[in-house]
Specification:
The complex is a heterodimer. Chain A is an all-alpha fold. Chain A is built from four helices and no strands. Chain A has a domain of about 60 residues. The longest helix of chain A is centred in the N-terminal third of the chain and has 15 residues. By secondary structure, chain B is an alpha+beta fold. Chain B folds into two domains: about 80 residues, RNA polymerase II/Efflux pump adaptor protein, barrel-sandwich hybrid domain (OB fold (Dihydrolipoamide Acetyltransferase, E2P), Beta Barrel); about 200 residues, Chloramphenicol Acetyltransferase (2-Layer Sandwich), CATH 3.30.559. Classes of the chains: A mainly alpha, B alpha+beta.
Chain lengths: ~90, ~375
């Protein structure tokens, strides 16, 4: 998956838990919790939505890397490429 | 129209999910009602047959009004109908017929239905009527939208309930700071071990500790009704959930003392999601026997809340934070949380309240047993 595709998945997951969020208004470097008043329940739902959509296991210790769009895309792109078995077809 | 909390005075019937003649069983959802807390699903608490629908969709009626007549299993039809309709407190207000689709559209467009002239059957307001009213409204500036109307309505409801609480309930307040180092370390290790969908939330540990402490101090778990305390049969912990855009609801996790932490976490996630989507069940709003509020995520150290009547206690948690702490004569960094109790002095004294907070503390020291 490209970084752009992952960004779409992240924004989709975000609007899935908070439908009032305007996808076009997501600021990439601002903390989601600050931008959208998310609490720990929302955040767990968000992380689980990413897990379901991308099939990536996200340890709790890495949650802080999902706090903004920019950081989440970077982290998930790394995880997705690391999870891809070598030599597999795309 | 069931009371879904001390702050509810009326509700609007949105739609019937069962028809007269349908068999119904305890727990079935038979109708959806619109309140200041959003759309609420109305459950039934007996088996039988839906004999008659009394209130039509679109009608707003006060709490206590009979919505429908249910004939209990084995009851003769006529007797049951007379007995139940006899409970009706007074004549219904004049009906404004509105189709559910028109009601939804009116809400989306911010149209006040009271200002719409209905052209449908028997004067019912249709989608077209709402659209017409909306286009007229567009040329007329109006301060409030549907969203802000709901927010204002919820604000007024909270104001009424909280003012009543402060007027009628002699509150006393206690606080204690609890060392939760063992609980947070256990939670971290547990979440590393669990598959992602089964991970636990810290609030689940706090709610469970409160629920188990209530088994020991049951006089904080119940309601003050008609000048006396009624101990509740179950421990149903209301979890205060803030709604984006303002306001809050505190739906109950039923039987919280008997649920494991995974079930509690899923229950709290589910309640928060449905509370924000406006899809709670009537029993979840009406049954809470105590409320837990957690403002720690906002950086708050301690919460001294106002009891939600007719409950007699509210437990608050502040943020879970590292502090210098003295352990065996040495200063050590420890993870702590401040727990508070607001309690009704008519039902308990500070001594009982203190015992309750001490029990919460003790229970949190053995998280694996929660």
């Amino acid at each position: 998956m490209t970084a752009n595709e992952i960004a779409h998945v992240v924004v989709d997951a975000l609007t899935g838990i908070a439908p009032e969020i305007d996808p076009a208004a997501v600021q990439s470097s601002i903390n989601f919790r600050e931008q959208f008043d998310l609490d720990s329940v929302d955040f767990l739902n968000f992380v689980l939505a990413l897990h379901e959509r991308l099939g990536i296991d996200i340890p709790e210790a890495d949650y802080a890397r999902l706090y903004s769009l920019e950081s989440a895309v970077r982290y998930l792109t790394e995880k997705a490429s690391a999870a891809k078995p070598s030599g597999s077809e795309i | 129209m069931p009371s879904l909390g001390a702050d509810m005075e009326a509700g609007t019937l949105v739609e019937w999910l069962k028809r007269p003649g349908d068999a119904i069983t305890r727990g079935d959802i038979i109708a959806v009602v619109d309140t200041q807390k959003g759309a609420i699903e109305i459950e039934v608490f007996e088996d039988g047959v839906l004999e008659k629908v009394v209130v039509a969709p679109g009608e707003q009626v006060p709490v206590g009004t009979v919505l429908a007549v249910i004939r209990g299993a084995g009851e003769p039809a006529a007797t049951a109908a007379v007995a139940r309709t006899g409970e009706r407190p007074g004549p219904l207000p004049a009906r404004t017929r509105v189709s559910p689709a028109a009601r939804k559209l009116a809400e989306d467009l911010g149209v006040d239905l009271a200002t719409v002239h209905g052209t449908g059957p028997e004067g019912a307001i249709t989608r077209e009527d709402v659209q017409r009213a909306s286009s007229v409204k567009a040329s007329t500036p109006r301060a409030a939208t549907a969203g802000s109307d709901r927010t204002a309505g919820m604000r007024a409801a909270i104001a009424a309930a909280m003012a009543r609480s402060k007027r009628e309930i002699p509150h006393y307040y206690l606080s204690t700071t609890i060392d939760v180092s063992a609980a947070t370390a256990w939670l971290r290790a547990e979440n590393e071990r669990r598959p992602m969908p089964d991970r636990l939330l810290a609030i689940a540990l706090l709610v469970k500790a409160v629920a188990l402490a209530l088994r020991e101090i049951p006089d904080l778990n119940g309601q003050w009704i008609d000048g006396g305390f009624r101990k509740a049969a179950g421990i149903h912990v209301g979890c205060a959930i803030s709604l984006r855009g303002g306001g809050l609801v505190a739906p109950a996790v039923h039987g919280a003392d008997g649920k494991d932490l995974g079930t509690l976490t899923r229950g709290i996630r589910d309640l928060a999601t449905r509370a924000r989507a406006g899809a709670l069940k009537s029993s979840e709003l009406a049954d809470a026997t105590i409320t837990v509020t957690n403002l720690g995520e906002q950086g708050v150290d301690a919460t001294f809340g106002i009891i939600y009547p007719p409950q007699v206690a509210l437990v608050g948690f502040g943020r879970i934070v590292e502090r210098p702490w003295i352990v065996a004569g040495r200063v050590e960094p420890r993870t702590v949380v401040t727990a508070t109790l607001s309690a009704d002095h008519r039902a308990t004294d500070g001594h009982r309240g203190g015992s309750f907070l001490a029990a919460v503390d003790r229970l949190l020291q053995a998280p694996e047993q929660l």
